[in-house]
Structures are given as structure tokens and as C-alpha cells.
């Protein structure tokens, strides 16, 4: 494995996750949003995007660990991917295009 392969896969994973964000922007209602902690929200879009990113990276690198903001994960391993599928959930759910 080389750095170029990791970068290519990271870009493709971002596009896959981003597709979920684009398809649902300004289309989700309050029933799709939960408050994880005070002023910290999560939506089905966060979860779905993370699931798709995880699935892609798992296919590409079955021996790598993946830690996601929504699902957590195992930190021990030679290679660990950290996934934050949507940085700026509050802006996203408000329909503000800075996220």
C-alpha cells in the first residue's frame, strides 16, 4: 500500500459521503434530527453518510480500523481512519450552505 492509494480512496470516500449530503440538503425535517448533547445534533444524513463511507473504506482496506463520529470504532490497529461525515450539522439542518 502506498500514500497515493490512501489519498485516492479518501477522496472517493468523501465523494460518496458528499453525495448523501447533496441529495438531502434542504430536504430533511426536524423528525430526522436528534440532539446528542446540548447544542450537538445528529441527523439521519450524518449516519447515512458515515455508513456509506465506512462501507467503501472497509471494502478497500478490510484490515484497517475505522472510527466514526456517530458509530465510534476501534482505535487499535496499524491503520486507523477517522470519519466525520458532516462538519457543521447545525448549518446543514438549517439549510445554511456552510458546512
From TrEMBL:
Pfam families assigned: Inositol_P (PF00459)
Keyword vocabulary terms for this entry: Magnesium, Metal-binding
Origin: domain of life: Bacteria
Cofactor(s) annotated in UniProt: Mg(2+)
GO BP field: inositol metabolic process; signal transduction
InterPro entries hit by this protein: Inositol_monophosphatase-like
A molecular function (GO) term: inositol monophosphate 1-phosphatase activity
Binding site for Mg(2+): 69, 84, 86-87
Protein name (record): Inositol monophosphatase
Source organism: Aquifex aeolicus
